[in-house]
Each structure stands twice: as C-alpha cells, then as structure tokens.
Amino acid sequence: MTNQPRTMPSTPDRPTLTLTQPDDWHLHLRSGEVLRHVLPYSTRHFGRAIVMPNLQPPVVTCADAAAYRAEINAALPAGSRFQPLMTLYMTEQTEPAEVQRGFESGEISAVKLYPAGATTNSAAGVTNLQNIYPVLATMQAIGMPLLVHGEVVDSEVDIFDREAVFIEKKLQPVRAHFPELNIVFEHITTRDGVEYVQSCDQYTAATITPHHLVINRNALLVGGIKPHYYCLPVAKRETHRLALVAAATSGDKRFFLGTDSAPHLDGAKESACGCAGIFNVANTLSIVTEVFEWAGALDQLEGFLALNGAAFYGLAPNPNKITLQRHKAPLALPEKLVLPAGEITPFDPQLDLHWQVV
Ligand code: DOR
Ligand code: ZN
Fold first, then answer.
1. How far apart are the CA of 145 and the centre of ligand 2, in A?
2. Where are the chain's structural domains?
3. Architecture of 16-357 per CATH?
4. Catalytic residue positions?
5. Does 287 sit in the ligand 1 pocket, CB within 6 Å?
6. Are the beta carbons of 191 and 239 closer than 8 angstroms?
7. What is the average pLDDT across 142-157?
8. Quick one: which of 82, 84, 338, 356 has the most CB atoms within 10 Å?
C-alpha cells in the first residue's frame, strides 16, 4: 500500500469477530511434496476450495480430477473436513459430454479457461474461443460455471493492459453469445474488471485475491525487482488497487475471495526468469480482515469471505464458524516453508497485520 502508513488505526472496541467459515474460490494446491506442505495452510482456515487444474499434465478428464481429488484427500491433516472442489482444464479438445457427466455427478464444480500461453502451465489452453463454443453451450444449459483467466496473450498488448483488452476482445463476445452462462472472471486486477462485472447481471461474478487488495505494481518494481510479488495477472497501478478494495468491501454479492495462492519453490521465483505466483494462504484472512477494517467495512467481511461465493456456486455456506482476534501488536509474518526440494516464501503484504484466526 504505497503512501499508506504501515500501522492502521486500532479499534479496541471490536477485539474479536466470529464469521461463517470462509471458502477459497481459486486455489493452486499443486501435487506431491508441495501439495503435502501447502495443504494444511488452506485446511486450517477454509471449508472448501475451488482447486485449479493447471498441473503438469493438466487435469482434463473426470478421471484425472478423481485421481487428483484422491491425492488431495490422502494429504489432508487428520480429522480435516476440508472439501476440494475439482475443476477441469479447458482445451480445444474438451468434450461437452465429459464436462456434463462430471458436473451432473457432482465430481466437477467448474471448468477453467486459460488462454494458451497466458500463465503457468497454460500451454494446453485455448487459442480460438470459437472452438470451445459447443462446450460453453452445454455448460450454459446445465448451469456449470466457466472460470476465466482474463488476459490476452498478444505480444503487442502491454502486460498492464491485457485484462482490459481481454474484456473487450474476448469476454464480451462470449457473453453476447452465451447470455446465461455462469462466468467467474478470476482474480480481477483492474478498475476495468470491476466496472465490467458491475455492468453485468447475476450470471457474472469475480474473484479478488488478497495480494491485489494490498499491493500495487510498485511492490514488484521499486527498489529492485521483487520476484515474490510477481503473479499473473500482474499487480497494476494504485487506482486499480483502490477499485478492487471498493468492490470487495461494497457488499456487492458478485465479488468474493479467491486467493489464487500459487506456491513455487524460491529457486523458481528468485531466478532470471521467475515464475508467476504468490503463496498467500498462510495469512490471507489476516490480510483481508485488515483491509476491510481499514475500509470501515467489517460488516461486509463475511459476505466476501464466506457467503457470496457459495451463493454463486449454488452451495450452502459452511456450517462451522471461525473467530478472528485483533491483537494490539503487529503479528509476525508466517515462517518460510522448508521442503526437501527447497523453500516457499509466504506473501509479505508490506503492512502490519493485527487480526489472527483463533
Ligand atoms: O500468478 C499466477 N500463478 N497466476 C496464474 O494464473 C497461475 C499461477 C500458477 O499456477 O502459478
Ligand atoms: Zn490461479
């Protein structure tokens, strides 16, 4: 938060907050050793998560998703009731019947659309959207959500403009063709994204990440290149961050939390060609609560964290509650994760945090 004090005003009259347990509507859990190390950070706070399918190779069939779900369930901490909600990775070969079977059996919650080349493990994604229109027609008919990574990949489009151009060139034509398709515009980063969603009806929603609520592009580029602030879509200028905070805290049910927590080993990020992705679930709830407090909108926090997304996906809110407590002294940052293959650095929001999950 450039130009903002690191310490936010304290509210001693509201030392604790009890909320419906949150969900994470956009999460990268990876597989193998990384999955086993990062999963407990999600399960200790969240009831459910929409699990991204961009493994290598990607999760393209119901059988792939079933195998991935089994791997996640086998890695759950003892006693955890965390529910992974599985997604399929859209390719130009995706079969409408496969998608329909997965959705109607309850195994698959949504399909993720990556424009080919837009981000990590997106090479198998879609180049020509018209090639997936038969799948989209089926999804619209059965009410299955399409989750969209909303960036164009054209080399002549500036990386900071790729979301805005995507809205005009890609999203609006799809929306015009499929007016009742449930679309989640994932991890929006711009005022353009906010205004687009606001201009739509109830069939369009958007996830917002904790990192895009608190950093702008200065975090990445001022004082040296900071690879742990690099993600896609890349953080934008401050006016866009402010638009995201206003949308998240507004009470508009079309905006909800998707952490886009995307762990990479430090060696892959601290590199001449560093990977995109920020591992944030260790302190997501502290960050988002701080932002809502600072915006004077703690009364809208439960909607953003726990109610709006469930309603969009047609699910009941979690039955459990969580409590956050406000500490006077700033919290310590979470420790680095130490894996046999290397370390993973949790997101440092560059501001003091006071709210801790009890
Ligand atoms: O920063 C990102 N990391 N954005 C994405 O879209 C993918 C993700 C990843 O999988 O690492
Ligand atoms: Zn993602």
1. 16
2. 16-357
3. Alpha-Beta Barrel (3.20)
4. 260
5. no
6. yes
7. 97
8. 84
Alpha-carbon distance 240 to 263, whole Å?
24
Residue 146 alpha carbon to ligand 2 centre in Å: 14
Work out the average pLDDT over 187-194: 98
| Ligand 2 centroid distance, CA of 24 (Å) | 11
> Which ligand does the CA of 278 lie closest to?
1
Q: Which atom of ligand 1 is nearest to the CA of 118?
A: 6
Helix (H) or strand (E) segment spanning residue 308: helix 308-312
Q: 100: which 2 tokens?
A: 């329909």
Report residue 13's pLDDT band, with 50, 70 and 90 as the boundaries: low
pTM of model > 0.90 = yes
Residues sharing a CB contact under 8 Å with residue 117, sequence separation 6 or more, in sequence order? 123, 125, 153
Q: What type of residue sits at position 63?
A: A
Q: Ligand nearest 119 Cα, by number? A: 1
Atom of ligand 1 nearest to the CA of 230: 1
Q: Which residues of 194-233 are buried (b: 16+ CB within 10 A; e: fewer)?
A: bebbeebeebbbbbbbbbbbbbbbbbbeeeeebbbbbbbb
Distances (CA, A) of 68 to 60, 72, 179, 271, 328: 11, 6, 32, 29, 42
Locate the ligand 1 atom nearest the alpha carbon of residue 276 and give its number.
1
